[in-house]
Design goal:
Layout: H1 3-24, H2 30-35, H3 42-53, H4 56-69, H5 75-98, H6 103-110, H7 114-146, H8 151-201, H9 206-209, H10 221-230, H11 244-259, H12 262-265, H13 274-292, H14 295-310, H15 327-335, E1 338-340, H16 360-365, E2 373-375, H17 380-387, H18 392-430, H19 436-459, H20 465-489, H21 495-516, H22 544-562, H23 568-578
Antiparallel strand pairs: 1-2
Helix pairs in contact: 1-8, 1-18, 3-8, 3-13, 4-7, 4-14, 4-18, 4-20, 5-11, 5-13, 6-7, 6-20, 7-8, 7-18, 7-19, 7-20, 7-21, 8-18, 8-19, 10-14, 11-20, 11-22, 14-17, 17-18, 18-19, 20-21, 20-22, 21-22
């Protein structure tokens, strides 16, 4: 059967499943739309959280980043995993005890201020919109290859599917859809990994295969990979990180950004009891671990397969001729995500690190005039089955899995945006007397608008999926996480301090990102776009969220201690949230 037909069957079948679930679980009330009626089982909720969490960045881009940067990019694994533990231990049970629908509602009530609630809405929308760009961009990458359409058309298809099941079903439809999406994406991720681990190491368990012997060469897999890439001028795959400060800040930014992301936090309001929130977190960690333990192996094996594809006889011999390139390279070239430029007109694909001055003499001796092969990091996981010549059904499966990962997280983010607009802005501010039917309509309209905006921005992303997502985590880290932490654990923080801290943290982070990613040009200066030499203490824009969080905490504490204490009833409220003694249920206020 033709590969396109196989892909269409897998992707189309998964889409039909998602839409069918949405029709079955159609939301009939605001409680259904926001928190699935508050009656989701902890295991079901754990699987939904896993799908919500394992976005296009986790499924598609994370392994690509680790493949490109090796040990240095393991910060993504450490930050995202550690952040989820932080969320489960420090925030989720207490927020669930508080019993509100949304993060801005908690901040507004805890800091007894409608303005605080509105500032939280602004922070939530900025972080969530930035995050959803990465998901839509990832969906575009998957669609452009597997359905043989351009990225823009792929985004439109993805937007239509999300519109149907998210706008119709709300949190109730999204929850059960995400359970199905988790099943699809984890099977799609692990089956190719098992095949490839068997091919390269003889070990069917990818995490163990990563540290096993490479069958063909008889040396450890990582040692073989290091040998190949260093001989072509690339950095050691297992090399340590040069800038330890930046690594620590980036990991911290991802951790606290994870704990501050509203689309994950809202999941803990969908279970009946506080104890169920803790069980949900535990199950989610199990489900997430299945993918995160596999990702480093997928990354290493994909990088090795890519190098041996171009240098089939070894790096000491000539690279493959362009006319003899494998079919998978030809098919990905159509998408524009793989490019070849024959700089020395020899008809072969020279792939090496032309930026390494120590390799320049070797390259010149070989007659090479520059690197001729470039690829988008986001393709490696999706192309892995093709690189390894796996059966067509595995390729179709991973196509469905990549789209499931992107769509599941996008739906959760769009719901967070929708609830912030309808519940926190409209009902919480502009029209407190709106009927439940009117609020539900407003939620659906705001989600539809958010989908249109996300589709447009996904077609014009400011970076590849995981990079854009890292920015979203930095924004959440600098704005929402400190407010949540201080709201739960520090009775002395008042409304003026909380608002000042959120604005200071968000403002400092956005200014740093915009300047040093080149999105904002300062007259009279050279553009500082992505130039590490100009970064403050070598801190990357992707890492600045941790600094923004420190600014947020410092400003909030200073302003709060210079102004009046919170009312006694608010301090008592903090005590009741910190020491949960009952189950409580989410209520509509």
């Amino acid at each position: 059967m033709d590969q396109f037909i196989i892909n269409l069957l897998f992707v189309g079948g998964s889409f039909a499943l998602y839409i069918g679930i949405a029709i079955w679980a159609k939301a009939g009330s605001t409680s259904d739309f926001y928190v699935a009626g508050g009656g989701v089982h902890p295991i079901t909720n754990g699987a939904a959280i896993g799908a919500d969490w394992m976005s296009a960045a986790s499924f598609i881009s994370m392994a690509g980043l680790i493949a490109a940067g090796g040990y240095a990019n393991s910060t993504f694994l450490m930050g995202w995993t550690g952040g989820y533990v932080l969320l489960a231990m420090l925030l989720a049970p207490y927020l669930r005890k508080f019993g509100k629908f949304t993060v801005p509602e908690f901040i507004g009530d805890r800091f007894y201020s409608r303005n605080a609630r509105f500032v939280a809405v602004a922070c939530l929308i900025v972080a969530s919109v930035t995050y959803v760009i990465g998901q839509m961009a990832g969906a575009g990458v998957a669609f452009s290859r597997f359905l043989e359409v351009d990225a823009t058309m792929g985004l439109i298809i993805a937007a239509v599917v999300i519109f149907i099941y998210a706008v119709l079903g709300g949190m109730k439809g999204i929850t059960y859809t995400q359970v199905a999406q988790y099943c699809v994406l984890i099977i799609a991720y692990t089956i190719p990994a098992v095949f490839i681990s068997l091919q390269l190491t003889g070990n069917p368990l990818p995490p163990l295969g990563l540290f096993s012997t490479h069958v063909e060469s008889g040396v450890p897999l990582l040692e073989k990979l290091d040998q190949i890439i260093t001989e072509l001028g690339f950095r050691d795959y297992t090399a340590d990180v040069d800038n330890k400060l930046n690594m620590v800040l980036f990991t911290l930014s991802l951790m606290i950004g994870t704990a501050g992301l509203p689309h994950v936090i809202i999941r803990f309001f969908t279970v009946p009891k506080v104890a169920d929130a803790r069980w949900s977190a535990g199950w989610a960690l199990v489900f997430i671990a299945l993918l995160y333990l596999t990702a480093p192996a997928v990354a290493s094996m994909a990088r090795l397969n890519l190098m041996t594809t171009i240098y089939p006889e070894g790096v000491d011999s000539q690279p493959i001729e362009y006319d003899e390139r494998p079919q998978w390279v030809r098919e990905w070239e159509v998408t524009g995500l793989i490019q070849f430029e024959d700089k020395n007109n020899d008809g072969r694909i020279q792939f090496y690190n032309e930026g390494n001055p120590e390799f320049a003499e070797e390259a010149e001796a070989r007659g090479w005039e520059g690197n001729e092969f470039t690829y988008n990091n986001d393709i490696l996981v999706l192309a892995n089955p093709e690189i390894a010549n796996l059966p067509g059904w595995v390729i179709g499966l991973i196509a469905a899995g990549g789209l499931a990962a992107a769509l599941s997280t996008a739906a959760g983010l769009l719901l967070a945006i929708s609830s912030a607009v309808s519940h926190d802005l409209i009902k919480g501010g502009f029209n407190p007397n709106i009927s439940e039917k009117g609020e539900l309509l407003a939620a659906r309209i705001s989600m539809a608008v958010a989908i249109v905006l996300a589709t447009y921005l996904g077609a014009n992303p400011p970076g590849f999926a995981a990079q854009v997502v890292a920015l979203a985590f930095g924004i959440a880290a600098a704005s929402l996480f400190p407010a949540l932490m201080m709201g739960i654990f520090f009775k002395r923080i008042n409304n003026v301090g909380a608002i000042s801290g959120m604005l200071a943290g968000l403002g400092a982070t956005l200014v740093y990102i915009f300047i040093f990613l080149g999105w904002f040009f300062i007259p009279g200066t050279n553009n500082l776009a992505n130039t590490p030499d100009n970064w403050l203490l070598g801190i990357s824009p992707l890492s600045f969220g941790a600094v923004g969080a420190i600014i947020n905490f410092a400003v909030a504490f200073a302003v709060s201690h210079a102004t009046e204490e919170p009312p006694v009833e608010i301090q008592e409220l903090v005590e009741s949230v910190r020491y949960p003694r009952g189950s409580g249920t989410a209520t509509d206020h």
